[in-house]
Amino acid sequence: MKKLFSGFYPLNPNDYKNLWKDAYFIFDTNVLLNLYRYNKSTSDELLSVIESLGDKVWIPYIVGLEYQRNRLNVISEQNSKFKKVGSIIKGGISTIESQLDKLSLQKRHSSIEPESFIESLKEEADKFINTLNILEEEHPSVIKEDKIRNKLSEILDSKIGTRAKNQTEIDKLESEAKKRFELSIPPGYKDLGKDQSKNPVFTYDEIRYNKTYSDYILWNEIIEFSKADYVSNVFLITDDVKDDWWYKVDQNGPKTISPRPELISEIKRKSNVNVFHMYNSESFLKYANEALDIEVSSEAINEVKDINIENQSELFKSVVNLDQSNEKKLIKYLKHLDLNDVLLKQKEEEGNSRQVTDLDYDDLSELSKSVINALDKCLQHGVPQNAETIASELDMSYPTLRRRLRSEYLSFQILKDFTRYKLIVLLVTEGERNYEQLALKAGFTEESTFHRAFKTWTGMTISDFIQYKILFRD
């Protein structure tokens, strides 16, 4: 029975790990394009893992073509988000100002003075937008040298499928795909009609392609490649989640079991393959940790997972404008949230609610001490205390730093405030009484912001602090 229905008998995960050193790894277009959506550190880690596979890496010609055609669009899409975020921040402050102006508080309520609050918002917004501008400069651009493509070109040199001989060959494959789609034979039939609002046809190198049938062309290339005598095991790495690729069962929500049994059966029947398996990028990196002598950070794996969810889930689109018809979809989405990520966010919120006066440097972790030391160094040299800059000095991305601090019930902001507070105490103890100088040395651009922050931290004004906590040693 197992021999007849081998497509329904996938190996267990440990068995697949034993095959890694002999398998060929084939990468889908979406995996390559997602490299532009990750932080640089995550992209670098994924590229390093792919490179470590050496001659066991291969991509179909159609994957290379789709990557080249869509690369600039993805880069442009990512870059546009920098401007959009900046506009949202500025627009939000303008909205707050406008709404407060309508209340005419200066004439009608002398006790409410929102001006200092607005100024603080603007100050923080300016810092954030400056950081965005720096990040945008560092991000791939359509007019800059593409280091990711350069690296892929190096890794994939001589590891790409061949172009179709002529238009007749592609026409024949697309005709086969059309017949298969009518019978819901995987892969690719879920793409039927997905480009209804666009022209799905394009031409490159004198050959015309219909994007609707790209998945089948890719699949046919994989089968042809697998007919070689030296190919025995094939792993396809794809971030496509459609069930014309994956065998899924609904058990308290969808569960992905394996590649579609029809795909396993077909490739075994038509080629020399003993084992065919598929991974998404997240699973690929997880098993690379165990099957290869490579260390992949949990931060990289988590980011790959987050990007996959963001790119593939239609639920995000449906819950933005929530109404009764979308309520069930929202509940379904919430059920699929990563519980660990939720807990980390709760920890970060608790960390932000802690008082700087409750922290003790000696009780903090080595990571937190390193952050504080880096912040202190910035203050000594009059350099802005930028979260991304500090993270870079610690040889990690800001999302990585943030996640690690979350796990300690801390945040970058609370450590920044603690560093400023300790410096102010030291300066006052040494005799500094000039408020403007205290504010400047503690990294505040406005003295009024310094006064508000100090009162928030300690519950007293700086003048009271000097009088009671320092002069009288209370």
Name the descriptors.
single chain; four-stranded parallel β-sheet; 474 residues; two-stranded antiparallel ribbon; 22 helices; 8 strands; 2 domains; elongated; alpha/beta; Arc Repressor Mutant, subunit A
Molecular structure report:
The strands form three sheets. The protein has a four-stranded parallel β-sheet with strand order 2-1-5-8. It has a two-stranded antiparallel sheet with strand order 3-4. A two-stranded antiparallel ribbon has the order 6-7. With 474 residues, the chain is α/β, with parallel strands linked by helices. It is 58% helix and 7% strand. Helix 4 (61-102) packs antiparallel against helix 6, helix 11 (281-291) runs antiparallel to helix 12 (298-312) and helix 20 (435-441) crosses helix 21. The protein folds into two domains: 6-73 and 149-297, no CATH class; 342-471, Homeodomain-like (Arc Repressor Mutant, subunit A, Orthogonal Bundle). It has 22 helices and eight strands.
Secondary structure elements and pairings:
Layout: H1 13-19, E1 24-27, H2 29-33, H3 40-52, E2 57-58, H4 61-102, H5 105-108, H6 115-138, H7 147-155, H8 167-182, E3 201-204, E4 207-210, H9 214-225, E5 233-237, E6 246-250, E7 254-259, H10 261-270, E8 275-279, H11 281-291, H12 298-312, H13 315-319, H14 327-335, H15 339-352, H16 366-380, H17 387-393, H18 398-406, H19 412-429, H20 435-441, H21 447-458, H22 462-471
Parallel strand pairs: 1-2, 1-5, 5-8
Antiparallel strand pairs: 3-4, 6-7
Helix pairs in contact: 3-7, 3-12, 4-6, 11-12, 16-19, 20-21
